[in-house]
Task: structure prediction
Amino acid sequence: MADEFDAPGHEPTKPREPQPGQIMFEFVRESDGAHYRCELHEFTRSYGFDLRVLKNGDLISSDVFATREFAMRWSHEKRQALEKGGAL
Result:
């Protein structure tokens, strides 16, 4: 039996387009010119919130939190560390 994805006339589905999250912070670090951006993505209530940090457009960190409050606290601490030249 042919798989439905191999069936004649079946068109493959398009890959999902990434959805931008709520911007928590964005800045360019003076010491090295690196562009940092932190986005908050909300999953369903059972999964919580994903906080993603991008450096020059590349994902360098992704953490999941049960509540928005924890995610916002984390983003504040990470911004302070990154601005001082620290790493994740």
Summary: The first helix runs from residue 68 to 83. Residues 22-83 form one domain.
